[in-house]
Amino acid sequence: MPETRVVFYQEADGQAPVVDWLQELLESNERAWTNCRARIELLVQFGHELRRPAADYLRDGIHELRAKQGHVQYRLLYFFHGRQAAILAHALTKEDEVPKADIERAMKRKKLFEANPKAHTYESKD
Predict the structure, then answer these.
(1) How high does pLDDT run on average in the chain?
(2) Which of 33, 38, 82, 108 could make an S-S bridge to 25, C-beta 3.0–4.6 Å?
(3) Taking the CA of residue 48 as centre, how many other CA atoms within 13 Å lie in the half-sphere pointing to its CB?
């Protein structure tokens, strides 16, 4: 199975919310960051085939990567665009459900990404 290319959503102003959040997480909680990073690597490796407990389908084309550290559930919301997965948003919860507002944010970003993938794909400055 070919690897899935994983990209991060970027706002029109160049901000990449999930990239920024992951950088903050690395600085504040390296173990949680490592768990999130491992889930992203599983998404690269398994793509559409990735299932629970690592990933789950939410609704309207939005999926979640599921990582846990202590009592906190870390969620990375993404969708598939051709052979790539675009990570759109993140959520933290102590519940089993992703907050509705986070899913709505991901759906809004999904529409923007689909309308202009090039403008909304984060490119590392490194």
Answers:
(1) 95
(2) 33
(3) 8
